[in-house]
Structure formats: C-alpha cells, structure tokens
Amino acid sequence: EALSRTAEVDVKGGWKVGDPVPYAALTKTFSLIEATTKRLEKTSLLTSFFWLVIQRSKTDDYNSLLQSVYLCINRLSPDYVGVELGIGESLLIKAISESTGRSLATIKADLKKEGDLGLVAMISKNSQKTLFKPKPLTVPFVFSNLREIALSSGHSSQAKKVSIITKLLAACQDFEAKYIVRSLEGKLRIGNAERTVLVALAHAAVLAKEQAGKRWSKEKVASRLEEGANIMKAVYSELPTYDIVIPALLTHGLSDLHTYCKLTPGVPLKPMLAKPTKAIGEVLDRFEGRRFTCEYKYDGERAQVHRLEDGSVSVFSRNSEDMKAKYPDLVEQLPRCIKEKTKSFVLDAEAVAIDKTSGKLMPFQELSRRKRKDVKVEDIQVKVCLFAFDLIYLNGEPLLQKSLSERRELLREHFQIVPGEFDFAKSSDGSTTDEIQAFLEESVKDGCEGLMVKMLESDASFYEPSRRSVNWLKLKKDYLAGVGDSLDLVVVGGYYGKGKRTNVYGAFLLACFDADAEEYQTICKIGTGFSEEMLQTHWDTLRPLEVTKPRGDIKPGGAKPDVWFEPKVVWEVLAADLSLSPVYTAAQGLVEERGISLRFPRFIRVRDDKSADDATGPEQISEMYERQALAQSKGGKKSKGD
Ligand code: ATP
C-alpha cells in the first residue's frame, strides 16, 4: 500500500538508474497530492516518489533525494540558513509574459480570474504553440536555478532573476510551470506538511533499503514502517537538517540513524513546549507524588544559544531563525557567563528586557520594538538579560536523556551569574499548594507571566524536542484569574471594513491548525479591539497574502470572508469563552459533530516567532472547551488547590 502509487508518479521510459530526477515526476506527484485532502494518500504518493528516487540513484548520490525533499517542502536550505524564495508578483508576471509572449494585461486579467499565478503560468504555457519540444527539466537543474535566484542580490539582480525564470519557464511542460511559479512565490499550496515528508521519507527508506532482498510479512512491514517513521521524526527533531540526515539515511539506513545524527551545536533543535494548566490543584494531580520544580515563566523571547568548539556563537529563535543580528548584545555578553571548562554547549533560555538602571524585568513588548536585523550595540536602548533554564548539550555530549535535575546541576556548574546579563531561571522545588501559590505570586510581582512547572527526575524529565509535553506545565497568572489560556491562531480571511475603515480590513477570520489532518479549521471572526493604526499594519502585512479562493487545506465551514489569505500570519488571541458552533470547523467531531468557536475574541499580539504550523491545535481547543464545561458544571466553584 505504501508504494501503491509508484506507477502514477513515475515517468515512462525517461528515468533510468543514474539519471537526474525528472522534474516531471516531482510535479506529477505534486499535482496528485494537491488533488487529495487525505493524509494517508498524500503520504503514499510521496513515499512512492521518494522510493523511485532512491531506487534510481547511484550509490553515493545523496543529492537526488536531498534536492527532491527540499523542493517538496519548498525550501532550498535548512530553516536556520534562511535561503528563501518569495519572488514578487510583478516580477513573475513579467517573466511569464516574456517566456510565453502573452501581454502583461492578459496575464493580470487571468490572475484576477484564477487567483493563482501558478495556474496562470500553466495556462499561458499550454496556450503557446511550440515548434520543438524543450529538453526536459530535471530536479538538480531546477534546484540550482532556484538557489541562484534566491541568492542573487544587488541592483542588477532583478533583471538576472527575470532572465533565469524566463529560461526555466521556457522549458516547462505539463504541470511544471504551475509548480515552478508557486515555488518562486514561496507557496507551494499542496498542503504538504513537513511531518508527511518525514514519514514518507522513512517509509521509502525502509522499503528501499531495509526490505531489499528480505521477505517480510505484512505485519512486519507495517510495524517496520511505523517504527521507521518514529525514528525519523525523533532524529529530525533533534537534528533538523536534511543536509546531514539524508546522506546518513542513505549510507547507514534507518535503524542506525540515531547513532549518526545527534544533536549538534550550530543546528537549532525544535524546542520543548509546555501544556497549559488552570489551577495549582491540576499541577499536583498531574505530578502526583513525583519530584518537580517550579520556575519563573519569563515574559521575553525564547533563545536557544549554541556555542561550537571553535568558540563561535549562534542564537536561535523558537522557530529556528538566526537571531544574532537582532541580539548582538547577547552575543557580546555571553563569554562573561561561561566558565573555563565550558567549551561547546546548547542552552535553552529566555531573553528578557530589563531596565538599565533598576535591573527590573520589563515586558516582552519592550523587546518586540527591536529591529530584527542590523541592530548595533551602541544604538540599543533596552538591555537584554538571558535567563537560562536548561542545558541540552555540553562539551561534545547531548544531554537530552539526562534528568532535568542532572541537566540543571551541569548548567549551574558550567555557567556563572553576571548581574544584568546572565542568570539562571529562578526556581523553587516546593511542592505544596501554598508554596506554589506563594511562588506564583512572587513571579508575577517580579514581572513574569507565571510559572513553568517541570518534572525533575526519571525519564519523564528528559528533554523532549519539538514536543508539547505533559512533563512541562505552564501556570499563567491569567489562567488563575479565570481568563483561560490564550490561543495562537492563523489569519485565513479578511472582511472589508465599513464606514471609516473601508480602506482596510475591519475584521478577520481565524483558524486553528490540525497537524494530523494537515488542515486549518476556522474558529471565529475577530473585529473588535483594533486601533486604526493596527488595522493599517494588518492590512499592509495581509494584503500581499490575499488569494481569491481558500487554499485546499483550509476547511472553511460556513465562514464567508470577503478575501482569503495564505495561512501565514499567527496572532495570539484571548476569548471570553468557547461555544459550540454550526458555522466554524475547529475541533469538529472531537467534542461533538459541531465545531468550537471563540466568543468575544480579543487580539493580544502578532506572534511572528510562530509559523502557521505552530498554531493551537484542535485537541487543545477541545480540552479547553471540556475544562470550561467541567468548571461550569461545578457551578463556578473553585477546584481543589485554587
Ligand atoms: P506562550 O504563548 O505562553 O509563550 P508558547 O507556545 O510559545 O507559549 P509554551 O510551551 O506554551 O510556548 O510556553 C513556554 C514558553 O515560555 C517558552 O517557549 C519560553 O519562551 C517561555 N519561558 C519563559 N520562562 C521559561 C522557563 N523557565 N522554562 C521554559 N520556558 C520558559
């Protein structure tokens, strides 16, 4: 079953062992993936394609699979290197016009009708009469040209980009123009989440390498596939770079992958995350009888600090973006907090704004005013202090599978406090309700959001990359005030404003993200609480993301906004409560057939440290709904420990 689609994604006759991967095979796979919303089908299509790539690559050819994978996720390098595509519409229209001879006006008119420049490029190509068949495109050719486009800068770069794109388009056949243009736009729109790619890659590797020559029963194949997918996801969460993982996979196979691909300083891993809790009683119930620690939950920006053996330092955001340009002061301060015996490390920490004179903690907003790039140390107004709460790599050794108490001991042993620059997250290991309550109040008084409560001992306290784990709980002051946790939602639609607000969107349609189904489920319309200035900013950000039809992976339900957006922008939102809804699709089928909606949603802030895939999921929403229902059935009585 995993390979059932091989014949469909293959290209007949033109792909022999040792040949470069035909771009036609990749785009055929894309078009079949785009045509289905079923995750299993997407997975088996991709598995079939990757399997073919592996079968037809010569030994030691890692690039065929590597470049194919990158094109599937529409990236040209690991996340943290940031070689990005995102070519503007007008440049692409120009290139389409040049390569097809159609006028700019016709292309623009088509775009208005179709709402997808990729489709317009394909229509334009197919309406063109060609005298001879162009040489077929290959994955390495497309990949290297896309990289050249992404990397070219400077004043003559526009003309260069148009010329490369025109050349690529001239060679396109069938679906190719559609996907080349979408790749260039930076939005592939086939609803292909990275998780599916990882699973498919694992399945293809199991079937190509490990099963070769062996006769496995159906049950054995199924269990090996599942095991393989788990290994792949675990390895990738620790070392999220295909540049290392794919060569290792092809050389050593899946079963040994973990031996060769371990957490490595310089490659940011996906951080561990916490689950919300509403009451101290809930913390005690979850951690019953086991040792745990409470730490201040600082209100800053997550910073993963890496130091390599050679002394070079990198600071990464929650989303693996390189933040050295935003925090040159952090980099400059760092050597002062390192002890001599500390060579290489990965620290998990929060970068927090502090008042220059009093040393008091300041809210996140102070940091968010900083530019993201080209910050000069001498221009910095707000000082930043690093509060370290975890050490996940030290002197050549990953520490993920050590208990938190051991990691914390190593952290304290190898780093030193520098007032105003570096400190350890304040913690208390007290375990009674009164102690936690007192510490929570203290944290809020000191300017924190509340507490993080973490398991201290045993394998339950290991560092779990990329996981929202029950072994880390967050206890925010807002929850105790009965407000509930905020949600991070994706802006998927806009409603034009009325009255004074006709030049901007006056309201927005929000959605949560279901990582299993890989779909965005609508949850509410939000339209109050925005200042004119904010609406203008949202307009500026969202207008370029407008599309005429909802993307295939958006499940709109009954929502009918005036315009749809590419799901990209994430907002943090608070709501008065949650209710069942016949209109919206969030968490449909989890609590009831109907979806769940937010009542009186309020915009808190833009979360540009989160991508659309990091948005709140339907399980969290149904959990919140059920907790609220439980609280109401108790007649608003406080639960144990509040
Ligand atoms: P939030 O919206 O609350 O920041 P999140 O989804 O970004 O949530 P959570 O796992 O829910 O992430 O909350 C943990 C976040 O809190 C971390 O990403 C980190 O930035 C911050 N933080 C502050 N202090 C700590 C601490 N002592 N331990 C872990 N994380 C901390």
TrEMBL record:
Residues 377-514 form the ATP-dependent DNA ligase family profile domain. Its EC number is 6.5.1.1. GO terms for cellular component: mitochondrion; nucleus. Residues 629-642 are annotated as: Disordered. It comes from the Eukaryota. It is an enzyme of class 6 (ligase). It is found in: Nucleus. GO terms for molecular function: ATP binding; DNA binding; DNA ligase (ATP) activity. It catalyses: ATP + (deoxyribonucleotide)n-3'-hydroxyl + 5'-phospho-(deoxyribonucleotide)m = (deoxyribonucleotide)n+m + AMP + diphosphate. Belongs to the ATP-dependent DNA ligase family. This is DNA ligase. It comes from Rhizopogon vinicolor AM-OR11-026. The lineage of its organism: Eukaryota, Fungi, Dikarya, Basidiomycota, Agaricomycotina. The chain holds residues 222 to 863 of 869 of the full protein.
